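User: I'm new to structure prediction. If I give you an amino acid sequence, what do you actually give back? Let's try with this one:
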Amino acid sequence: MASKISQPALGCWPPICRRRPPATVSAMDPPWSCVPARARGYHGLRPATAGAGARRMNGNPGPQDPHGLPQAAIDEANRALKDAAWAEQNGLVERAIAAYRRVVQLAPQVHQAHNNLSGLLLGIGEPRQALAAARQALALQPQDAMIHGTTGQACLACGLVDEGIGHLRVALAAQPEMHALRALLADVLVDAGRLDQAAALFTEAEGRFASDPQFLVPAARLYSRVHLAGSAEAAYLRLLQLEPRRAATFNDLAQLYNEHTHFSKARDLCLKGLMLEPDAPVMWNTLASAQACMGQTAEALKSYRRALELAPGHAATRSNLLLAMHYSSEVTPAELVAEHRRFGEICAQPAAAARPFPNLPDPGRRLRIGYLSPDFRSHSVAFFFEPLLDHRDHAAFEVVAFADVKGPDAVTARLRGKCDEWHSIVNLPDPVIAERIRAAGIDILVDLAGHAGNVHAAALAWKGAPVQVTYCGYPDSTGLDAVDYRITDAIADPPGVDDAYVERLVRLPGGFLCFRPPPQLPELTPPPLLARGQVSFGCFNREFKVSQRCYDLWARILKAVPGARLVMKCLGAADAGTRSFMLAEFERRGVAAARIELVGFIASQQEHFGWYRQVDVALDTFPYNGTTTTLDSLMMGVPVVTLAGQNHAGRVGASLLAQVGLPEYLADDEDGYLALAVELACDPGRLVQLHGSLRERLLASRLCDGTRFMPAFEFALRGMWANWCRNQGATLTPAQQAMAAFDFTALAPR
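Assistant: Good question. You get back a string of structure tokens that encode the predicted 3D arrangement of the chain. For your 750 residues, that looks like this:
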């Protein structure tokens, strides 16, 4: 089904203004126009300087007075103008708006007043009124660059993307030194999918502004966003030459390096930046991300906590801390529970969550299901989201995606084509995201990220939908009272763990995930042990999931199987510092580096799967299990040994193996894990049989069968909705009561 595409996400425009007070009250040369800024730092357009045609509204009206107004009207308009300027300077936005309305009522020919009014209306979220005011200003002064800038933003806020871009181009052509405007236009072009045009705004101006830091900062950030990493790096390095003590540049370049797997470079840059600005919380957060991606979890947790000491209310950093805590062998389940609840306490928005919803409380009607994620792209979450689209009941459910996807790709396009509506929320603040969701009339919002990825967990606190659910992308609670349910199963979250969650657990029968295998898979091959003569263990999980206990146990396994090697494929393997750290961890446990083969990122999916042909037995990570990597291993015929943990993150492996009918490869403790790995390594015949049968077994399971999975998933959604409707006073039928109780025995086959 073709999707309805919403306006691009433009961020919110608070009334951040640069102004000058009027020289005299009578001057019809108003203060600096209030052109709302994008949240990422757009500071407004300066007005065009007044020419000879500008007139002070004093003296008697006569033939030379272009306004032709009575003196009394002139005096009252000037009083209103003075009041508007004073109100703006003191943050009294509503009073300023009322004053400007009075000015344009008395003196409708004054284009600056219309323009200032438009900017203020944009700032309070009244885009249609803002556009009307801007168009009046433009009709009076069609060549005014400032007014084109305001009109462009108002058009964009109203979803008139092409018209808005046109006005912004006119404004930039007249004021090419306005690099904040250039950045705004570039971001809009990126949101509209015009990446080449966005980049050209900066590449074509590089010769003129190559030594201007005000140009280089937005240029570097834009290049990073459109995946011109080399150009972004060059711009940042040039900035460091021009302003070697600008700490923010160290942080921005470190973030770029983190995004492109140069984790040790990112770490080193942050350490240098912190020497200049030791109390910069954003730098501590970036440092922590680099340390986590290098597998240095203990150091990362310290850095995240330091960032939160400096900025305790920063939700994204707190989410990063929560995710990283799952990687540590030293963090207890009780500590995880406490930290999640602390997030909920800090980020709670009780007034917003208590707002009533206009949604019709009819338990039987077609529902609008919203999905919120940054991972509608080539990402593991997409493998589990797409079956929800392919196998849904179109008559009963309408699907609306809220995508925080900064780098859309072919997977993004495919997913968008399967949704009924698609809304980009890139760069939107959390409360604005919630308002977009509320405005879209969503009945149930399903969060697919939690505290993972490019997080917007705090947006859930603003309660954009009557029912909010977290699922799939994060292995724990959100910690937010505003999130009502969490979808799981009885193996990943066995009975008795409910108190660890703020949300009500809904356990799907048979497993909580459904997987979309790649359409083209390489041919299966015999285990490499037959050709090499020695067994090859493998782990293709990210380096941050490899805990100290993993290193301990894997070293024991390698010592127990002479000649065996371990193939580790992860993003960090491409980074020299990360490689050195990982190899040193084995060496200090008595395992030679020569027995470890580290493989970095591989873009080709076929080549990625080809590396599984180099592995006889896969070793799962703990306390944070793999998910997609486990299924990839089974799909390539490689058995996976996993360890049952204490919480969801450590029990996903158990859930997956149970669904495929392979519980015998689940260990209850580390000694059992070692015994299973060694037993498989010493049984070539068994490995041959498994390498030839596991794919068929996986593909035949419920894990890969959306027609079997979706009825239970949609039954759960119906039950959540029935509960909300009942709380609004609706009467439920017996069938709806069964749904509300999540009695899956009442589920009728589709």
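You can read the tokens as a compact description of the fold. Here is one thing that stands out. The two ends are 21 Å apart (CA to CA).
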